[in-house]
Every structure is written in C-alpha cells, then in structure tokens.
Amino acid sequence: MSRFTLPLRATATCLLALLAGIAAPSAAQAQGVAYVSSEKDNALAIVDLKTLAVVGSLPTCKRPRHLQRSPDGKQMLVACGESNQADIIDLTTRKSVGKLALGDDPEAFDISPDGRTLYASNEDEGALSFIDIASGKLLKSVEVGKEPEGVKVSHDGKTVWVTSEAASLVHVIDTASAKVVRNIKVGKRPRRFALTPDGKQLWVTNELGASVTVLSTADYQTLATIAFEVKGVRAADITPVGITMTQDGKRAFVALGRANQVAFVDVASRKVTDLVLVGKRAWNVALDKAEGRLIVVNGLSDDITVVDVTAARAIKSIAVGRVPYAALVVE
C-alpha cells in the first residue's frame, strides 16, 4: 500500500467528515423567519431566512410599526399607530390572540424583564404609558417631552428611558415612582436606543444629528458622540434611526436612513468599520440568532436587505409590502 493511500475505513471517515462540513450551515446561513411590519398594508410579511423568500403574510391592526417578542418567547406584540393598540400574536399558531390598548398614537414600546408591564410612548399625548399586560389596564401615564419615540427598559427593570424627538432629550424615568428623575440633552431628533450587555452604556441614535450619542448609565455623562459620514452623501441625508448590537456587545449596527446605508460600528473604539449600501431609507435593523445576517428594513423601497455580517455585503433585497417599518427575527 502506498503511503499516500488511506485504508478503506479511514477513507470513508474522511468522506463523511467532508460531507458533514458541506452540509453544516455557515454563519451567514440563518434559520427561522423574519416578521416585517408594513404600515400601508396593515400586515406582517413572513420571510424565510434560509430560502430568503416571503412565505406568507399575517393581517394585523392599522399601521403596524414596532414589533417585540414577549419575555417568555411565546408571543409577538405589534404596535399599531392608527389602532392605538398592540396586536398580540401567538408565534406557534401565527394567529392573533388578543389586543392591548396602548393609548393615542403609540410609537414604540418595551416590556419589563418580568413580563408584567409594557411601557409605550404616545406621540400625540407627549407621554409614556405604563400598561399592565395581564389586565390591559393603564397603570400610570408620565408626561415627557413632545414627540416621544424610543423606549428602553434597564436590565434590572428599575429605569425606563424615553427619547423626545422635538426636545432632543432622553428622559430617565424611575419605574417605581413613575417620575422623570433626569433629562439628558443629546443630538437633534433622538429616535432609538441600544443598551450594552453589561448595562453600562446607552446608545442613542440622533436622526437629524447624523450621529449616535453614547451615555454612561451610571451618571448620564456623554462618553462619546459618533458622527457618521458617507462619501458623496450630504450630512442632512444621513439620518440614523434603527440600531442593534451583538449579544457580546462588540459590534453595533446603525441604519442611516436616507443615506441608504447601514453602518457597522466597533463598540470598544466607537469607530465605523464598514458601510454597506442597502435599500432606500434604511429605517430599522435586526440580527438573526447566529448574528451572521443583518435584516435592514427599507421604508421607501418597500423591501428588506439581507446583509452578510462577516463579509459586510448585501446578499439580497426582498420585497415585503408597502412602507415596511421594523423586523423581528424568530427562530
């Protein structure tokens, strides 16, 4: 037997290993589905992340926008701006199982870590509503600045943050007393939040400031302002809104709105490492579970762009309905 010839058993073993390697999904091959809200269609498009195709549609209430999974993972809540409520959808049956009143013109919401309380921003009222999820009752309403939007609850549930677009403020609200305990000046027209996994940094997108403000949650000092620049694009057209982070807190992804780009940001250095061209008005972003693919929701091209995170390149654009707003990935 030649020294270059493997025994039959070894050859079979190597062949099986090779086939297993070929069959194993790469980091960029996502599993599960993405639900994408369509403001004009009053529906959610269902996108299979393995085939990258729309496989269905769920009717919902009027002008669906923000989507969030319940803490137990069994349900999805959809905020509908023109219905003034959330549609509660069972993720197993993909059917609506109830409605939850959210107050006038709900923009966004977050849920307490124990799953009991929903905090919703109400643009017309200039308020944050505390809603008991089990009973559907309004517990409290806290007055904030005009045009509140982004809502984020701290990991311990003791604090909720709200952006005021008109006032360019982040309001710090104590959930026990339901009182604003601090107002933080940030960039122009703040929209959404991301919280680092350790809870020490709060990242705020500033739509008309072409930037992200990084705040310390210990003392609310501004740690940094990350300014975005895109070659050939005016600063006025760089309008960051959606933001998400990897689970290890090492990378952030920011949708740059009318710049039609998504920015990859190294969290430690607070530097932009990559810019990826996507659809028109990149509005919101979501990662798949493996964090190999980024879903970018494009509000003016009526599609989503699927981005390979490792390669920092767009893979495919998928039409998902009229004026898509947000995406939620469910495995």
> So how many helices?
1
Gap between N and C termini, in Å?
Answer: 50 Å
Main pleated sheet: 4 strands, antiparallel
Structural class, by secondary structure, is mainly beta
Biggest sheet strand line-up: 3-2-1-28
Shape: globular
The percent of residues in helical segments reads under 10%
Order of helix and strand elements from N to C terminus: HEEEEEEEEEEEEEEEEEEEEEEEEEEEE
Report the count of strand segments.
Answer: 28
Question: How does this model look, in words?
Answer:
- The protein is mostly beta strands and 331 residues long.
- The chain has one helix and 28 strands.
- Strand 10 and strand 11 form a beta hairpin.
- The radius of gyration is 21 Å and the shape is globular.
- Mean pLDDT is 91; it is low at 1-28.
What is the topological layout?
Blueprint (H helix, E strand, L loop, with lengths): L7 H16 L9 E6 L4 E6 L4 E7 L4 E6 L5 E6 L4 E6 L4 E7 L4 E6 L5 E6 L4 E6 L5 E6 L4 E6 L5 E6 L4 E6 L4 E7 L4 E6 L5 E6 L4 E6 L5 E6 L15 E3 L5 E5 L5 E6 L4 E7 L4 E6 L5 E6 L4 E6 L4 E7 L4 E7 L1
Antiparallel strand pairs: 1-2, 1-28, 2-3, 4-5, 5-6, 6-7, 8-9, 9-10, 10-11, 12-13, 13-14, 14-15, 16-17, 17-18, 18-19, 20-21, 21-22, 22-23, 24-25, 25-26, 26-27
